[in-house]
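Record Adenosine 5'-phosphosulfate reductase, 424 aa.
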Amino acid sequence: MPKSNLASAPVAHEKLKALGILALNGMFDEMDAVSVLRYAINDVLPGDLAIVSSFGADSAVLLHMVAQVDPSLPVYFLETGKHFAETLAYVETLKKTLGLLNVHAIHPNSDDVKRFDPNGDLWETDPDSCCHIRKTEPLEPITEQYGGWVTGRKRYQTSERGVLPHFELTSDDRIKVNPLAYFSDADVTEYRQAHNLPEHPLYAKGYKSIGCAPCTSIVAEGEDPRAGRWRGLNKKECGIHYDFNGAIASPMTAAARHTLWKEGAFIADPFKPWSEGTRPADARYVHVPVSEFIANRADYLASPHPLGLLVSPGDNIETLVDDLARFASIAIAFPSFTDGRGYSSARLLVERFKYAGEIRAVGDVLQDQIPHMLRCGFNALVVTHEPTREALVEHRLPEMALFYQPVGLTEVPMGTRPFLRRVS
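=>
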């Protein structure tokens, strides 16, 4: 099971710095993958290393090495709910064949899937958000418990991986170990054949890199092995990897990536900023401005895609009362700290119109405002102000005990006698 040694990462970070990243990478022959793995497990991060495996086309090679060095090493498989049936069967085959003792499936949060991908087709319209919900988000709390983890990445797979070393020192104070960094496609095949390892059932059919079924296609002769992943899209990685030079994805921590605060944490936000000129038929996972929605109401109501509504100061949401249920989220803008009209909009949504979806505050959201926002019905906040982010994470919001303007029927305004207060 996952361990809880949250303090291990900085220690590992310091140890790798002490060894020297260049010196460490110079200790091993390019093809000495087993020695790289053994040194990482036994010397660099003893008891503090895990492996994340896709159980894809090349996975048997690295997992065979793991079984030789330490078959009890924690192995995590991202069970996205979108895998080929053949991949799920292959997981069980390799567990049995290699004698792996510590394999765990990681599933996406069911509430996130229900909310952001209710029809299971998010991969068609927004594959980045789909990967974020089904891969990056579920994996982060696992990797945070280890000082480092092993990957199966190889230099030959994409141009972005062409400078991949055996050991990476990442900016989130962890170590990535890439034992197969210098392996070619031919090396992988030769190793698999030499050790009589079971082949992924789809490999012989032309699937050279295998991920989720909807986003994986057959690779033609001469193509990049990963050309079949997200074919036709400007996408090369799912987001769980970034190279030491940051070329694949921005090397930031989870807290820096996420700006949506909900249910006590910064979480994934599949909603993207609204872009002027977006056609109603193309809009999905965006907050449509009120004026835009009114101008094209019929088209937006006919769209099957999840949408949000953006309410700015001065917008009259009372004119949209019959359409509010259409929106998965309503964002209320606070263009400045002193503009309080958003509080009234939130109260109307909750108290009069009984809107039960997400109500998020966007714009100038600062920690002194947040208690008022929560009182008025906001249940989500988009926060970019760093001191406010820290206050949320550290539970340092100001407390409010006295109210001049009460909300609902339970708050008593300062200066009144509760027993004289009328309840309407």
